[in-house]
Amino acid sequence: DVSDDVRRTAVLALGFVLYSEPEQTPRIVSLLSESYNPHVRYGAALAVGISCAGTGLSEAISLLEPLTSDVVDFVRQGALIAMAMVMVQTNEASDARVGTFRRQLEKIILDKHEDTMSKMGAILASGILDAGGRNVTIRLHSKTKHDKVTAVVGLAVFSQFWYWYPLIYFVSLSFSPTAFIGLNYDLKVPKFEFLSHAKPSLFEYPKPTSVPTTTSAVKLPTAVLSTSAKAKARAKKEAEQKANAEKPTGAESSAAANTGKGKSSSEKDGEAMQVDSPPEKKSEPEPSFEILTNPARVVPAQEKFIKFLEDSRYVPVKLAPSGFVLLRDLCPNEPEVLSLTDAPTSTSSPAGGSTAAAGQQSSSAMAVDDEPQPPQPFEYSS
């Protein structure tokens, strides 16, 4: 088409057509990402971001990397946003390029000479990377491969922020929580353990950023007074005179020197004998599995490693690696231990009893009805 807007939107729409087969998208739009038209390159970047969102696909990251340093500012903006959509819930242990991308975002955001379009894209990309406290991902279809219409509409409207910036907030409709929450017959969360048969570092939270605290102290030349220089010279001369006066004869000095040498050598040997070499710290090998406790964070890439323990009290009714999972209790006569409780806390307590009530309440209790009471009826007069 002759219109740049039409071409950009048409290429971007390929992401919605191909999101059920994200592996095919980088191959299909690879030539479009090298187009001479910057609008086509922008659409290709967002098409890859929409189609491969939350997958951490290596081919998608390789295609988007050159676009993050494009010569056109809005192409860089789209590439940064698309890269963040692909890398959601992917840490540096899974792909080393995630750490490089995070440092690139930090550099763009802090650079005062960076253009506004790229800086806005970096800020949005940083927010998408850490969305929901890093506990959500972008999913356009359910586990049963059905379309999630709300998520698709959210991303479709979000992609139109080109014309109106407030449409950015629609991206939140495409976020889906990534957690395993086991429920018993009473829809409560019991204490339940299961196995993640993968290294913990592959799916752990990214390390928090640390602000550098080192400051380079500039040493200024110290002022030397003329009186202090004369005083130092006088003290040095007096010390030399005192040393010459107390100097022993040649034989005594040689004997004393030999004794001192022998003593110093023996002392050095003794000191050398007493010094112990510091023990070498051996890094412990990382375990190949991890025990998770209900409820737990389970990212999509981790679902295939989830295993349920054979000797566990609770067994899933249907083998589901994430989401809300109903559990069957194999020991119904034994008392249950809940991980979360929804018991409301009383807002009014007698004097002196608030401390005891707070002590009795479990630290893991989740107060869902802890809100203030409405005010008493009153009459208003102007």
UniProtKB/TrEMBL annotation:
Pfam families: HEAT_2, RPN2_C. Residues 373-382 have a biased composition (Pro residues). Residues 178-337 form the 26S proteasome regulatory subunit RPN2 C-terminal domain. Keywords: Proteasome, Repeat. Residues 236-245 have a biased composition (Basic and acidic residues). It comes from Gossypium aridum (American cotton). It comes from the Eukaryota. PANTHER family: 26S PROTEASOME NON-ATPASE REGULATORY SUBUNIT (PTHR10943), 26S PROTEASOME NON-ATPASE REGULATORY SUBUNIT 1 (PTHR10943:SF2). This is 26S proteasome regulatory subunit RPN2 C-terminal domain-containing protein. The keyword Repeat applies. InterPro entries: ARM-like, ARM-type_fold, RPN2_C. Residues 251-263 have a biased composition (Polar residues). Residues 231-295, 337-382 are annotated as: Disordered. GO terms for cellular component: nucleus; proteasome regulatory particle, base subcomplex; proteasome storage granule. GO terms for biological process: proteasome-mediated ubiquitin-dependent protein catabolic process. Residues 343-365 have a biased composition (Low complexity).
